[in-house]
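As practice, study what follows.
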Amino acid sequence: MGTPLAHTTALVAGATRGAGRAIAVELGALGATVYCTGRSTEAAPSDMARPETIEGTARRVTEAGGQGVAVPTDHLDPQQVAALVRRVDTEQGALDVLVNDVWGGDPLAEWDARLWEHDLENGRKLLRRAVDTHIITSHHALPLLTRRPGGLVLEITDGTDRDTYRGSFFYDLAKDAVIRMAQAQAAELGPLSGTAVALTPGFLRSEAMLDIFGVTEENWREATAKEPHFCASESPAYVGRAAAALAADPDVGQWNGRAVSSWAMAGEYGFTDADGTRPDWGRYMAEVVLTGATPSDEGYR
């Protein structure tokens, strides 16, 4: 695709690992300058206790062909976010793409607990990390994003269906709220020639997920012995390429207010996952997981 984003400035909030890291890298591969933010730094690891850092992501962005800039930021702190946006303004004079990917809820979600059994403080903290961070970031970044027409906001979520319960009250509320935030921002950005879209990956082979199953990206299929449906999983590059394709599309406004997926965008824009396949988690979920059919990714890649 060349470098269609060579004059594009992007801010990926929550770029340390997983979807956020991949989105930052794929934006960089198309030539963008990408501000990579989060709490996990080489000098001070966050409470996620993971080895990935925003500096590591920024280096990958630069190696991919863009310019990566690491800025330590706690997106729950409005003053830190305001300072971040001022820095982007001072250094670039514009912001073209905002990716709200802050999460940090994995250690807080209690999947076997109903609402009244779930630790209340953990649930409220999850909502602060997964919802408040997005609100704070958009509040401070949108004045810069709307300075010129064509700005894009991507809200990274889980799923496109707002009618299906995701199995945990606080997790479901957070991910559903993110979709609604994309719709609300779309309504406000549309008259200003801006676009907001909710974007979801499928069964994501994030660094943490690979560690849970004790595999790497090279031998990930061995994890199907523990979780057969992992056969239809996708690497973070897939959703990263979806985000980059949206950012590079001059007609991206066609998606304004929509909740879209990595697999649907692959069909629209013609990209593949890192291994050259096109996993279709949506169809796999409907035809295999929900029907109880024998797990197999044949015909879904």
